[in-house]
User: Fold this.
Amino acid sequence: MSAGAKSKAYNSLWQVRNDTWSSLEESAIQLARAEARQRPVEKLVETVTRLLDVLRPIERLWAFPGAQACQEAQRVFAAGRYDRLATVVRRANRALVTGSYRHGQAWDPDVEEDTYDHEAHPAAQARADRPYFEVLVVADLTGEQERSLREELRRWRRPDDSFVYEIVVVPSFDDALMAARLNFSLQACVVGRQFTHRSRHDSASLAQFVYSGGSADLMERSPDERAQVLARSLARIRPELDLYLMTEISVEELAGRLSHHYRRIFHIREGSLELHLSILDGVAARYRSPFFSALRSYSHRPTGVFHALPISHAKSILNSHWIGDMVDFYGLDIFLAETSATSGGLDSLLEPTGPLREAQQLAAETFGSRQTFFVTNGTSTANKIVVQALVQPGDIVLVDRNCHQSHHYGLMLAGAMVTYLEAYPLNEYSMYGAVPLTEIKRQLLALRRAGKLDRVKMVLLTNCTFDGIVYDVGRVMEECLAIKPDLVFLWDEAWFAFARFHPVYRPRTAMRAARTLIETLRLPEYRERYDAQAEQIGPIDAADDGTLLKRRLIPDPARARVRVYSTQSTHKTLTSLRQGSMIHVTDQDFSQKVEETFHEAYMTHTSTSPNYQILASLDLGRRQAALEGFELVQKQVENAMRLRDAVDHHPLLSKYMRCLTTKDLIPAQYRSSGIDQPLRSGLPNMIKAWDCDEFVLDPSRVTIFIGATGIDGDQFKRGHLMDRYGVQINKTSRNTVLFMTTIGTTRSSVAYLIEVLVTIARELEAQLADMSPNERAAHERQVLRLTAPSAPLPDFSGFHPSFSGANGQPSPEGDVRRAFYLSYNDSYCEYLKPEEVEQRVENGEQVVSTTYVTPYPPGYPVLVPGQVFSPEILAFMRSLDTPEVHGYRADLGYRVYVDKALEITAPGANSRLEAAPETVRAPTTSQAASSP
Assistant:
């Protein structure tokens, strides 16, 4: 099998590279042994030749082991020195596997491993803990020029440098883009004036892992224009890279024209010292963690505490006779860093002026926002902060009904008039997908018909959904702004913080899409597109609904304001202590319209005693994402694909389980690319799907269908994965379990999960073999129940007129707050058993819920305060066998409104609710352990 064909079995070039080096080490050792024992070596020679052919085009994009190691291995192999080949390859592979090359030790293939004294190497001790990175040089250099540049930069190294780096030189535009996509060690790029367009190397074996770019007429442009195009292309792939330009003419003029693309511009004849220092300084800027550093410094100072926190500096623990094991478990440093001080080098989260303010500014740069705010009590609180800052009582908010409960409660507290959006259903798996754009436009146009478009304030959506459905964020905002130019968007990206750090994911993140939209609206050609649209359909305000629903809309660039907020659970998908979250803002009207109200909302929901450990972990998590996020997210995706392949290709597992694909979770009408499995058909196809499909599937979410096991999702999770094997997962449906890979997932973790799944499948096989005919029949009925579609997922039935904003006109919004607080008066409420509710609904009565009713799974409210029961809702609830239904009491039933309450609150009735003689208390929303 050819090297190129073999690589098609992989999802990542990094897997190909690592596995090929390991295979080459094994084959080289076998070859050396066979030669020493005078055994046939022909097949081993063929294997080594093939493996070297695989590595050659790959290693030219890395500094280590790099082309140097490949050339040395090829040289000794051609000379028949197989023992030396084994030594060279073993050293290179061991350094890759252990990561020892990242300690700054230059690799010299001419030094024998057995005689190499690492401790004796100059500055070995100083280098031992220094981070290593690589610098891409894009210039068409001769071999001698490349060696000279490498040696010159090495000469500038000093023992007290914070970092150490090596360079990798490529001659062309195409090679530069390939290196940026594939080499995770890159932190900077130096662009020379002279480079070619197309690669002179055969890169066919890399085609599935890269996506070619660049305009066809690149070489017809001036060197300065080529440098500009390359800078933009690199920034789209890896915006975190520091870019430097080396030129020999017009430095001053170029600085004025290209400085927004390049961090520094240097004259090539003025030496490389400034370049070297700038490279180190650029990485140091991202490496800084101001609040963590301030807290660490403060913790090492002696203090006298006459304030809160007896636990500060562990003073209440160290002399304790009973809780000394607390220090043994947590370590001393965490208590040394516990303080309530906001001065002495520290800062206040509520009014940051020092290291916390600087840490948040660095986070904004890293995540591509204009402002970023740290939150220490989770994204549930972050969501409430944003909603309270932006929404006044009576404002209309369009929200996905299947959103996180914090949005439901936040909108209720804010007094919003809520319009629920329907996601497309996946009845076969008892879950919802995402909200189609046509549904959002339909609701906006319905509100326009009702004369209420001026009251619509916000669209609130979850990106990505729990199950990994990702929106085309830019298109959603663009088309909605065409209908309502000042609309605010809140994207709940609680599970999507990592997406910023992968070039395929990034365009579908809120902050990146917001920036792109701002830039696009300013282009002259965009204005021309809008004028052409206006000629075809006239002003959007006057166009009919049918026309607006059918075509893709673009907003008036003179009226549209880009106002985008994103809330992210840093602790869920990046490095942070639990409850560490961030709010990212790109709002063109923030300083003018929102800053003061945002501050008040932030003060309302933020503790005056925030946890400094969480804040420091957010600072460090940002540093890690800025420096190695690209590498970690790519490996996260790789591990997910390994899991998918292991399940679907295993003869036993595939008998009882299968991984759901894009085709399973996203209907064809939302996939204009027509690609059923973009995750498994190479990066170019994945990029095509992510560029044009309305919805795409996050590869790191692996939903496994387990219906054929006869075990429902909740029992599979609790009774098998968690209780027996300690495998933690979050979400299940009646016949699926969701596995997520994160930047913390390892290959060993994936292997352990596969072992567990295989064990469960083997046990099931054994149980089936021992079953009696009656037991077998019962099992088959259970399998049929789990593999057949359940009762259809119910749509939102509507608000009762007492809580609706209709006022006699068709209008979808409802006053959830009024419906929620009305239930605090017991005389307005009663409990009904499910059969009683069904009887009343059959009799044509409107039964209205007083509270949120949320079964787990699926984990979204089937009923909200003020919503009427429907036959579809009752049928769905009747079909559930989940033991956990929040808002329902097994002993009493559903809590609903009596007719008197609905008459009092009916449109036209006296809005003042008279206090009832009974005691007013909070509504009962017991999290019962039984289903209806």
